[in-house]
Amino acid sequence: MATILDGKALAERIRADVKADVAQLGGVGLATILVGDDPASQIYIGLKHKAATEVGIEAIDVRLPAETSEEELLEQVEALNADDSIDGLLVQLPLPAHVDEALVLRSLDPAKDVDGLHPWNAGHLFLGRPTLVGATPVGILALLDEYRIPLEGARAVVVGRSDIVGKPVAALLLQRNATVTVCHSRTRDLAAMARDAEILVAAIGKARFVTAEMIRPGAVVIDVGINRVEGKLAGDVDFAAAQRIAGWITPVPGGVGPMTIAVLMSNTVRAAVRRRV
Ligand code: NDP
User: Helical H runs in 56-88?
Assistant: First the structure.
């Protein structure tokens, strides 16, 4: 049976450290902008604010109606960019179709961009330089390090190439000298690719897509997926079968999800520290 990579436990420790850092800094501010009423986005924003309150981060929860114009949203971002009490700023995705997402992300102050989605931060990550990197990829690496999973020279396969998970986690694994393959919807013979992986990261958004046959015996399996199946949460990995094959595995819930929330808090502290030097 696989060892469980306990994201919940590590996230609790990170949050305790963040709480101490926030107290020492004497106040840290985070602002989130949510446009529209997507139910999943509302849940994520709620979790982020709950975590912020718990660690003592002052959090501003900006909610705008779905019909908000691009111009109005840009004005809101600009106001928060200019607000010196705000250290971290994020725009919850997806945005409504009439808004140019890339334009909005480009309008963020890169120094406050705690999701690491501004091209300045994404570019620095690509170049292997220290910068703000999104909470999910950073959380995944923190979890691998916590369990002392060797990354150097390891064959890592990332399934999914989104800007928020797949690409940045691939970049971080590469920085740590893993040999990284990124798979996506056009990949031929994905099962064989996945089966070759010593570290398999599933960030697809399809419930139980990764079956036991796609996992190399003893592999490290990181399940990023959050899918709702008959009212329950399910990952992108068929956990029940996979845990009998894998060496290590993250559960859903209790794996990558809590790490994301905790690292968002530590990213906000990081932004605050960088802004104050
Ligand atoms: P996206 O929808 O942006 O990306 C999904 C990726 O999976 C794409 O690159 C897509 O390929 C690929 N894909 C889709 N279908 C297949 C397939 N049949 N075979 C191979 N690849 C496929 O999703 P996100 O990266 O934003 O999120 C992925 C999952 O992770 C979701 O369940 C999301 O809810 C969850 N998530 C969880 C977080 C957490 O904190 N735990 C944080 C963020 C996301 P292509 O590019 O070719 O279309």
Answer: 70-82
**Among protein residues, the one whose CA lies closest to atom 3 of ligand 1:** 162
Q: What is the pLDDT of residues 186-205, one digit of tens each?
A: 999 999 999 999 999 999 99
Q: Can 87 be counted among the known catalytic residues?
A: no
From 3, 8, 64, select the one nearest 31 (Cα to Cα).
64
Tell which atom from ligand 1 comes closest to the C-alpha of 93. Answer: 26
Catalytically annotated residue among 6, 21, 76, 92: 92
Q: How far is the CA of 205 from the centre of ligand 1 (A)?
A: 4
DSSP-H helix ranges across the chain: 7-25, 39-55, 70-82, 101-107, 119-126, 135-146, 166-175, 190-195, 239-242, 256-276
Q: How far is the CA of 254 from the centre of ligand 1 (A)?
A: 19
Residue nearest ligand 1's atom 1 by CA: 162
User: CB neighbours (10 Å) of residue 193?
Assistant: 18
Q: Over the stretch 17-59, which tens digit does the pLDDT of each residue have?
A: 999 999 999 999 999 999 999 999 999 999 999 999 999 999 9
Whole-angstrom distance, CA of residue 196 vs CA of residue 155: 8
92 in active site: yes
Beta strands 227-229 and 232-234 are: antiparallel
Q: How far is the CA of 28 from the centre of ligand 1 (A)?
A: 31
- Return mean pLDDT, the chain: 98
Please report the domains of the chain, with CATH numbers, ordered by start residue. Answer: 26-109 (3.40.50.10860), 135-257 (3.40.50.720)
Residue whose pair of structure tokens reads 């849940």 in the numeric block: 43
How is residue 269 written in tokens? Answer: 């502290």
Q: How far is the CA of 227 from the centre of ligand 1 (A)?
A: 10
Q: Is 48 a catalytic residue?
A: yes
